[in-house]
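hey can u check if this looks right to u? its 332 residues, i copy pasted from the old doc so theres a chance i mangled smth
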Amino acid sequence: MPATWIKYRTALEDVVLAHPRLFPGYREGDVDFDFPHFDNPLYELGRHVDCWGTVWENVERGLDSYPIGYPLDDWAKLATYTPPDPLRDDIFGPRDWGAEAIRLRAAKAAGKLAVGGGLPHGFMYMRLYYLRGFENLMLDIATGDPRLPELLRMVTDYNATVVRRYVELGAEMISVGDDLGLQTSLPVHPRTWRKILKPAYMQILAPCREADIPVYLHTDGHVLEIIPDLVDAGVRVLNPQFRANGLEGLQRIARGKVVLNQDLDRQLFPFATPAEIAAHITEAHAALSLPEGGLMFYAECEPDVPLENIDAICTALERVCRLPDPAALGET
């Protein structure tokens, strides 16, 4: 996280430089420790208003903001509310489709994957409560509020238009993020999720299914019960959290059914010993890997993770994943 760079600065860079197998393209000085990866204003202190009218507040620079103002917290506001234009309005500014087309072509020319997205983290389910407020949305769902379908249509149409445009521009994969789960369960019953949110996902990702383009979905929280539904919608690469879903559940429901970019146990990282971290990564690899592939590892380190543990994570990943030596591949 940017806040981790801000805290550790050159000490963290020393860890990165010590693990070239994990960071083969990194060069000393590549990160500005005062402004690491600040392409998103939500990592900056203060209040920010996005194109939907949601107000965000940041109280810790380098960590994400949280919503504090909801443009549709009162249903009476819906009659005069104008949603953003998906072809014109990006989350914090105008869309530049010409620049995106150039970026996708350049990625292909460089032999890289041309990844489209253009949707903010929390593009569908989370956007509903960014508009209504979480408690309001839960009550809307529980009571079957007759205005909820209009809200769903508004958000779904925006997202579907953006995804279709990226497919038309030649994207080879679509990457999106939506935290669908809580710590131990979904926020609604799986049947309710399938009734209310699965149709939205099916519509949004329809262009990807039609064009046979893989979808990458980051989603925090417990999502085991709906992983098959996400696969139905077009998700081929899933980024689920380890602790919220459990190793046995991931092995039973996800392994071999969808490519895993497995989010390792970031709730363990701040408190574990290096030996416990190594054991965790070894166990996860043994349980989730397959000879034919389909497994990646993702280790997010917040500022509360000690440097020693960050180094231990890197060491364990290099050992378990048997990463190639960049020098052997001709990199300097």
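The chain has one domain: 2-329.
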